[in-house]
Amino acid sequence: MHKQTIQTSTNTYDVIVGEGLLTKIEQFLPNTYENILIITDDVVNDLYANKLADVLKSVKHVAVSTVPAGEESKSIEQYYHLLTEAINHRLDRKSLIIALGGGMVGDLAGFVAATYMRGIDFIQVPTTILAHDSSVGGKVAINHPKGKNLIGNFYPPVAVIYDVETLKSLPAKEIRSGYAEVVKHGLISDRSFFEEVLKADLTVPLQPEVTVSHLQQGIAVKAGIVQQDEKESNIRKFLNFGHTLGHAIESELGYGEITHGEAVAIGMLFAMRVSQEKFQIKLPYNELYDWLAANRYPTSIKWPSVNHLIDKMKLDKKSENAIVQMVLLKEIGIPSIINLNDHELHAHLENFIRELG
Amino acid sequence: MHKQTIQTSTNTYDVIVGEGLLTKIEQFLPNTYENILIITDDVVNDLYANKLADVLKSVKHVAVSTVPAGEESKSIEQYYHLLTEAINHRLDRKSLIIALGGGMVGDLAGFVAATYMRGIDFIQVPTTILAHDSSVGGKVAINHPKGKNLIGNFYPPVAVIYDVETLKSLPAKEIRSGYAEVVKHGLISDRSFFEEVLKADLTVPLQPEVTVSHLQQGIAVKAGIVQQDEKESNIRKFLNFGHTLGHAIESELGYGEITHGEAVAIGMLFAMRVSQEKFQIKLPYNELYDWLAANRYPTSIKWPSVNHLIDKMKLDKKSENAIVQMVLLKEIGIPSIINLNDHELHAHLENFIRELG
């Protein structure tokens, strides 16, 4: 079991990573609660919700609300449905919401907690690798048809309890999706971490110790950044490496067509390519490309039009006054935020798409 | 012109009260903005939106989005509609939302600002007396059919710019509604302020100097409290004086059937009655009753069932673990929070309803 404490402007919370934490969850709750609502998706519900509700049996009221699995559930309709569930289960300001699931559940349930009665406690219980990223840092949101995470809050959980045993049930696609963010944490922080991650073979079952080590290091990178810049005024934007194009691809292809991490992987390749040209440097583009290909990430996709992609990139929350900002790398571990005009962006994208095929 | 500065946990903002501020608004903006969305209701739109947009002509993009007047617009549908408007007008993180209108517009537009891209700047430009209360303190929210303000955030504006000239267009009903909160600010803070307010005759046109004085004092009471307890852990609850029953009446009769302040006025009478019995003291119940009657507040209403009212009171965000909390007065200026069980509450309500007729 490994514990990191994260300091935010409004609270302090522990991120606990280990095996078998789900059954011991009560000892990690930072307060006592009389009323708990577990929010999960239908897949995770079948696997872990009853197990979790059972171990909380000393709590007066425990209820479970379920939404369909998949990014489509980060919608205004499911958000409102869950608020109604919270009311029907009579949650009050002293109640707790547990987000049991992947990034979708964490973002959605977190936004419900952030806005129910102007904010109640919530705990992240991630069950995916991707959620090592999304569960830390206090960003919660739902999607709008015109863009991802456009509606949300900065609202930190009161704890993150990460039981890596739950990762055993993950399909390969989800492992790939999550590992893209681990790779990102390596690229923006430290060459040796990046190289260590690239030794992982995602086509065979995960080794728990290796996974725990990668996740801890990834969380440490993220935590270090968000503690310095919770509201994303400056360096938190580094975490967006690969996401400018990644989000645009996800949004254009339709959520569900490509996983978040798969889109970010392509976005990271693009950001590396632009970095190399912009800064006239050499980055391990080929090494990353080869690892992605070997681990069955989609590298050739049905490309949306460049104009549509640029339009979506401008809608990204990181863009200001309709100028696209991208995170580039001056070298591994040295990210930098660069404004790109439409003309440059257009040229880079056309080249990249041609090259990737 | 009068200026008060309010300190919150996340920012500092000025509340400026005076005549003719609307036309000088640019000098009070705390930042420069390239893109501004004015959110208002259809009534205020006709009166002031163009005027405001005109004086902002140095700003690159200014757009106006309108919702129907009335509490019904504090709905999930209008909230989502306005978020879509913000996207369509290409607001980014550096843009500004101006809430031009009464409490409904302030709460709704404030919640849009709080959650659009996880929070952008917004300014309150109140056009009602009631909004002297709601525009200060950073509470933003929409309603759920099961309860008022159940969905929202604590999210302070970057400025409150209060042009009392806009109050001249207020209908009598709205003046009454607003003055109930002025009375409340008197009752929970200071006998002489309370007595001063009770000299007001709301059946004749408002005298600007008197109104400005009352509003300033009311804002000062509220500001003093919210600065000490922004997130309503303790003394901010004092501001809920009259609101426990008030909100339940509003919700049971249906928003629009009775104004917020009219419902709160009845709630204050109830809270005074309970205070007198609980603490065995004498409060100026009759003086308040007479003033309300003379100023045409409804004192006899179509009462919902006591059980329904109590059920709604338990859903109030201030109630904890399904026990109703009420703010009572030990004397004028000395509020106190008391838990009431169902039995007591039932008895008090039945007596009160019988007495009021």
TrEMBL record, chains A, B:
<dbReference type="InterPro" id="IPR056179">
    <property type="entry name" value="DHQS_C"/>
</dbReference>
<feature type="binding site">
    <location>
        <position position="139"/>
    </location>
    <ligand>
        <name>NAD(+)</name>
    </ligand>
</feature>
<keyword id="KW-0862">Zinc</keyword>
<keyword id="KW-0028">Amino-acid biosynthesis</keyword>
<feature type="binding site">
    <location>
        <begin position="127"/>
        <end position="128"/>
    </location>
    <ligand>
        <name>NAD(+)</name>
    </ligand>
</feature>
<protein>
    <recommendedName>
        <fullName>3-dehydroquinate synthase</fullName>
        <ecNumber>4.2.3.4</ecNumber>
    </recommendedName>
</protein>
<dbReference type="InterPro" id="IPR030960">
    <property type="entry name" value="DHQS/DOIS_N"/>
</dbReference>
<keyword id="KW-0812">Transmembrane</keyword>
<feature type="domain" description="3-dehydroquinate synthase C-terminal">
    <location>
        <begin position="178"/>
        <end position="319"/>
    </location>
</feature>
<feature type="binding site">
    <location>
        <position position="181"/>
    </location>
    <ligand>
        <name>Zn(2+)</name>
    </ligand>
</feature>
<feature type="binding site">
    <location>
        <position position="243"/>
    </location>
    <ligand>
        <name>Zn(2+)</name>
    </ligand>
</feature>
<comment type="function">
    <text>Catalyzes the conversion of 3-deoxy-D-arabino-heptulosonate 7-phosphate (DAHP) to dehydroquinate (DHQ).</text>
</comment>
<dbReference type="Pfam" id="PF24621">
    <property type="entry name" value="DHQS_C"/>
</dbReference>
<keyword id="KW-0479">Metal-binding</keyword>
<comment type="pathway">
    <text>Metabolic intermediate biosynthesis; chorismate biosynthesis; chorismate from D-erythrose 4-phosphate and phosphoenolpyruvate: step 2/7.</text>
</comment>
<keyword id="KW-1133">Transmembrane helix</keyword>
<keyword id="KW-0472">Membrane</keyword>
<feature type="binding site">
    <location>
        <position position="148"/>
    </location>
    <ligand>
        <name>NAD(+)</name>
    </ligand>
</feature>
<dbReference type="Pfam" id="PF01761">
    <property type="entry name" value="DHQ_synthase"/>
</dbReference>
<keyword id="KW-0057">Aromatic amino acid biosynthesis</keyword>
<keyword id="KW-0520">NAD</keyword>
<dbReference type="GO" id="GO:0003856">
    <property type="term" value="F:3-dehydroquinate synthase activity"/>
</dbReference>
<dbReference type="InterPro" id="IPR030963">
    <property type="entry name" value="DHQ_synth_fam"/>
</dbReference>
<feature type="domain" description="3-dehydroquinate synthase N-terminal">
    <location>
        <begin position="66"/>
        <end position="176"/>
    </location>
</feature>
<comment type="similarity">
    <text>Belongs to the sugar phosphate cyclases superfamily. Dehydroquinate synthase family.</text>
</comment>
<feature type="binding site">
    <location>
        <position position="260"/>
    </location>
    <ligand>
        <name>Zn(2+)</name>
    </ligand>
</feature>
<feature type="transmembrane region" description="Helical">
    <location>
        <begin position="96"/>
        <end position="117"/>
    </location>
</feature>
<keyword id="KW-0963">Cytoplasm</keyword>
<keyword id="KW-0170">Cobalt</keyword>
<keyword id="KW-0547">Nucleotide-binding</keyword>
<keyword id="KW-0456">Lyase</keyword>
<dbReference type="InterPro" id="IPR016037">
    <property type="entry name" value="DHQ_synth_AroB"/>
</dbReference>
<dbReference type="InterPro" id="IPR050071">
    <property type="entry name" value="Dehydroquinate_synthase"/>
</dbReference>
